[in-house]
Each structure stands twice: as C-alpha cells, then as structure tokens.
Design goal:
The complex is a heterodimer of chains A (about 110) and B (about 110). With about 110 residues, chain A is mainly beta. Helix content of chain A is about 0%, strand content about 50%. In chain A, about 35% of the residues are buried. The radius of gyration of chain B is 13 Å and the shape is globular. Chain B has strands at about 5, 10-15, 20-25, 30-35, 45-50, 55-60, 60-65, 70-75, 85-90, 100-105, 105-110. In chain B, the strands form two sheets. In chain B, strands 2, 4, 5, 9, 10 and 11 form a six-stranded mixed β-sheet that branches. Classes of the chains: A mainly beta (about 110), B mainly beta (about 110).
C-alpha cells in the first residue's frame, strides 16, 4: 500500500523545455490536487480534480495543464518551463466523503528550471 | 480573496516551555487543518477541525478553532526537540465542499535543549 507516489523525485530543465509530473494513488480517493511550495510562501494550489473526469484551476494555474487520467492518476504538465516554475511540487489526495476531509500528500518533486 | 496568516513565522523555544501558534483567516469557514512538515519531507496531517469550538489533542499538541473570531490556535505543551518542524494551517476556500486549501506561510519551530 504505497499511498501517494510521485515521479520523478528530482528534475532539472532548461527554459522552454516541457515535462510531465506524475502522481498516482492507491487509496481509492476521489479528489486529487497539485500544489507548489516556494520558500516562505507556504503551499499554493495549482489545479485540482474533485472527481474522475473533472479538473479545475486553483490559485496559480498559469503555465500548467493537468490530466486526470483515471481515478488513480493525476498528471501535471509544464509545456514551456520558466525559471519562475522552480519549486517543489506536491500531489495530494482526499477521499471527499463527509467527515474524512484530510488530504494526504505525496513525497514531492523538486524541479529546477535553468 | 481568502487569506490565511500565521504568527509567528519563526519560533525558537526551549525544551519544557509552552507556546501557542496563531492562525487567522479572512473569510467564513468552519474547516481548518493543521499540518507538520519536517525539512525536506512531505506534509503530515495533524488535526482536522470541522466546527466552531472544536478542540483536538495529540500528545503535546492541542488545536482549537473559533470560527466567529476566524482564529485557530496550536498550543505546544512542554516542548521537546522532536517537535522541531514547520507547522502549517490551511483553510478550505469553499467552506469544505471541494477541499481547495489555502495555506498559511508556516511557522518554523525550533526546540532547543
């Protein structure tokens, strides 16, 4: 039972390159989220998927796209990476049922854009 | 726009002392979350507070929620070194319907012997 997994753990890109961050969960949760964490900024929501087949923008969606491939997988794509996207990216999941609201976070992907 | 403010942002404590971290938020919400993050690690859920007056305790940590004052507190009793970490509070942007959390900037706690 792996919980929430993210790949890759580390990545270095050059400005303008593209890449996809992968997130998978085996918790049978309905909702999935992508956050970025920058020093001194806390976490900020990029996109979320309340349930399979739906995605919506969060606080800071510009420069990103997402795909909810199935219930287990939620990917984040950077089409043309910029240095401002250097950050640690966390995927999180949530069951979505009443009374069980907490989010479970993956280990993170540390991305550097040169 | 929902804003979540934590204070202090940095806290250096001696072992055995008590202290409180404050989390203020700007719009109505009755759901508040506390997370812990160790350096270089992911976030771990500590408490979920789902109603006004909710109080939860785990070991040396106790969290409370006052929705009227839009304030949550995380109280640390008799701190020990193992509590050194960054603590985040988060509020649901939509009052709980979708789990879209707005996080505070975090309080970095250092407990010294």
């Amino acid at each position: 039972n792996a919980g929430v997994t993210q790949t890759p753990k580390f990545q270095v890109l050059k400005t303008g390159q593209s890449m996809t961050l992968q997130c998978a969960q085996d918790m049978n949760h309905n909702s999935m989220y992508w956050y970025r964490q920058d020093p001194g900024m806390g976490l900020r929501l990029i996109y979320y998927s309340a349930s399979e087949g739906t995605t919506d923008k969060g606080e800071v969606p510009n420069g990103y796209n997402v795909s909810r491939l199935n219930k287990r997988e939620f990917s984040l794509r950077l089409e043309s990476a910029a240095p401002s996207q250097t950050s640690v990216y966390f995927c999180a999941t949530r069951w979505g049922g009443v009374g069980t609201d907490t989010q479970y976070f993956g280990p993170g992907t540390r991305l550097t854009v040169l | 726009e929902l804003k979540v403010e934590q204070n202090p942002l940095f806290l250096s404590m001696q072992e055995g002392k008590n202290y409180t971290i404050y989390c203020n938020y700007s719009t109505t919400s009755d759901r508040l979350y506390w997370y812990r993050q160790d350096p270089g690690k992911s976030l771990e859920s500590l408490f979920v507070l789902l109603s006004n007056g909710a109080v939860k305790q785990e070991g040396r940590l106790m969290a409370s929620l006052d929705t009227k004052a839009r304030l949550s507190t995380l109280h640390i009793t008799a701190a020990v070194h193992d509590l050194s970490a960054t603590y985040f509070c988060a509020v649901d942007m939509h009052g709980g319907s979708q789990g879209n959390l707005i996080f505070g900037k975090g309080t970095k706690l250092s407990v010294k012997p």
